[in-house]
Each structure stands twice: as C-alpha cells, then as structure tokens.
Amino acid sequence: MARIAGVEIPDNKNVWVALTYIYGIGVTRSKNILNSIGVELNKKVKDLSDEEITKIRQYIDENYKVEGSLRAEVASSIKRLISIGCYRGSRHKKGLPVRGQRTRDNARTRKGPKKTVGRKKKG
Q1: Domains and CATH numbers, the chain
Q2: Fewer CB near the last or first residue (10 Å), C or N of the chain?
Q3: 66-77 pLDDT, tens per residue?
Q4: CA–CA separation, 28 and 36 (whole Å)
Q5: What is the rounded CA–CA span in Å between residue 90 and residue 101?
Q6: Cβ–Cβ contacts within 10 Å for residue 54, how many?
Q7: Alpha helix segments (H runs only) across the chain
Q8: Total-model pTM
Q9: C-alpha distances in angstroms, 2 versus 67, 93, 102?
C-alpha cells in the first residue's frame, strides 16, 4: 500500500479512486492532480512506480491542504462561528442543520433517531 498525506491508499484500485480516500481530495481534484503530473487515471496503485508516487505526494503537499491541517481549519472555523454567537454557530452548537433545511420532517442525520415526545395514556 502506498502512503500519501499520512493515509494508506488501497493497491487494487485505480489511482484516481484511491486518491479520494484522502480527506480533502474528491473525484475532480484527484483527476486534476493526476492530469497535471501526467499519470494515467486508470492505472492501478500497485502498478505505480516509486517516482510517480513521490510526484503525487509532493504535488499534494505543495498545492493542497489535506487531512489533519484541513480538519483543524474546518474545526477552528466552526469554533469561531460558535464563539461569535452567530446563527450558524448556534445551529452547529445545537446539532441542527446549518444551511436552511427544514427540520420538521427530515434532518434525521443531524438530529439523530426520533425521540417520541407525547403524553402517557391514563390508566
């Protein structure tokens, strides 16, 4: 397995798919990286030479913020929103959708499983 940006990428996948295992690199960015370096998109990771792996590693380090530094930046942005007390920050704090989605019916991903609230039957 090749190790790029602190992540072990799988050997048996195409290079453009394997690069998406790195936090901060999606399909488009992965294809752009490979095109700018000149590596075939459909080449398997196990077929890459050491030289090509080092080129990919260097290109990503020089041009993109990925993994730990990106996660830290995102976390600090959210902390900033919470500390200034803006609407988006309060939504993050409460664990509700931030970008205006409705919460009456959906938003189960952010809110978690349903908690029934109601009255008990008189007995």
Answers
A1: 2-67 (1.10.8.50), 85-111 (4.10.910.10)
A2: C
A3: 999 999 999 999
A4: 12
A5: 15
A6: 13
A7: 15-18, 27-37, 50-63, 67-84, 87-94, 108-111
A8: 0.79
A9: 16, 38, 43
